[in-house]
Amino acid sequence: MAELYKLLRAILCLSGSLIVFHALNHNRRTEVLPQESIGIHARQIQNLVTFGDSFTDPSIQSHLGKQTWPVYATGYTNTSLFQFAKGGGVCSTELIPIPFPNVSVVEAQIRNYLEFASTYKLDMEESLFTLWIGTNDLGSLGLLIGKVTEPGISVVDTTVCAVNWVEIMYNHGARNFLFQQLATPQSYSNLYWAGSRNTTEWNLMMHELSSAAKSLSTLMLQNLAHRLPGAHIGVFDSFGLFLDMFNDPKNYFNGTAPLNVTFPIRSCVCHLDSDEVICTEVESEHERDSYMWWDELHPSEQAQRIVAKEIAEVIDTGFNKWSKWLT
Ligand SMILES: *[C@@H]1O[C@H](CO)[C@@H](O)[C@H](O)[C@H]1NC(C)=O
Ligand SMILES: *[C@@H]1O[C@H](CO)[C@@H](O)[C@H](O)[C@H]1NC(C)=O
Ligand SMILES: *[C@@H]1O[C@H](CO)[C@@H](O)[C@H](O)[C@H]1NC(C)=O
Ligand SMILES: *[C@@H]1O[C@H](CO)[C@@H](O)[C@H](O)[C@H]1NC(C)=O
Ligand SMILES: *[C@@H]1O[C@H](CO)[C@@H](O)[C@H](O)[C@H]1NC(C)=O
């Protein structure tokens, strides 16, 4: 157990990408036109098949005493969950050389899926495949500090990689996709980074990277969509949803403490280049639902429920204000 906790902490400590959330007013909501030929229809989806990192992986989160969105979303919609996301995951270790084995989307998660699919046949019409990846690629495991496998690798490559997941899964039979855009985390001095840094610069850099990733991936997916007949590809605007939670917390958070979108439930102070970390935690379950963040990187459980609620609406009705079907 102690070993597990150490490993978990190592993963978490290394997986941080720290930025202060910008209250920028550029929240362009996606408008969805109800057209029968695009997207999925109500009650079509019975299976949710998830890929990604700790934002999605329930096994990491449940060690922290909380649940991730897929568990809630499948609960809300009475659908089955097939979970392949891994905490600490990046898109590919060929781009970002993470120190953890068997967590990246391309090298591990897809392989695990194919192993599963060799014995278990999902009905592809009834299955929605999701991917929420990139926070670790962009953050302090990767691009933010120049940790790349070869000089020149950039957000363009990590975005190409994430978009390629759609084509790879399509070639393995998947037809319905929801591509979850990055939600940029907030930041302050915390558990995930004990080295020196200029927080303002990290903040600006993460904002640049995640905005670029969002626009690039949408354009790349639009381009890809034409080449995949019979595919339904949706983009889920997590970026916009998280910005709206930040700007308008009263619409989302319902705990008994004053609403708080800047400080996390679990707040840690690291000392420069030392292992010592001092953390405090909001104990009351009822107060926790007032917070947007669990720690400086991970959404709170209530934020996870909100993601779940929005994605459950996509599953139940085919439409949702944060989701846009490209095809
Ligand atoms: C949930 O789904 C299962 C299996 O598809 C079904 O047996 C059960 O009746 C459903 N429950 C509800 C509350 O719809
Ligand atoms: C990674 O996964 C492969 C294939 O499932 C397995 O053989 C290997 O032992 C795993 N490595 C670690 C360190 O868990
Ligand atoms: C941090 O970076 C910002 C933006 O480049 C700069 O204005 C500020 O002076 C820097 N702070 C320190 C302490 O270097
Ligand atoms: C959020 O929590 C922090 C730490 O407890 C506190 O300093 C801050 O004032 C809180 N903000 C609001 C808006 O309550
Ligand atoms: C807040 O709302 C969620 C549903 O979104 C509910 O599960 C939770 O119990 C609520 N929290 C409180 C403290 O009422």
Describe this structure as you would to a colleague.
By secondary structure, the protein is α/β, with parallel strands linked by helices. It has one domain: Rossmann fold, CATH 3.40.50. The protein is 37% helix and 12% strand. It is built from ten helices and eight strands. It has helices spanning 2-14, 58-63, 69-77, 105-117, 135-138, 155-171, 199-225, 238-247, 285-288, 301-317; strands spanning 47-52, 80-83, 127-132, 176-180, 232-236, 266-270, 277-281, 323-325. A six-stranded mixed sheet has the order 2-1-3-4-5-8, with helices on both faces. Strand 4, helix 7 and strand 5 form a beta-alpha-beta unit. The longest helix has 27 residues, at 199-225. 50% of the residues are buried. The model is unreliable at 1-36 (pLDDT under 50). The chain binds 2-acetamido-2-deoxy-beta-D-glucopyranose (5 copies). This is Carbohydrate esterase family 16 protein. It comes from Gymnopus androsaceus JB14. Residues 1-23 form the signal peptide.
Portion in helices: 25-40%
The rough form would be described as globular
- Tell me the CATH architecture: 3-Layer(aba) Sandwich
| Topology order in helix (H) and strand (E) letters | HEHHEHEHHEHEHEEHHE
Question: What ions, cofactors and ligands are bound?
Answer: 2-acetamido-2-deoxy-beta-D-glucopyranose
Classified by CATH, the class is Alpha Beta
Class of secondary structure makeup? alpha/beta
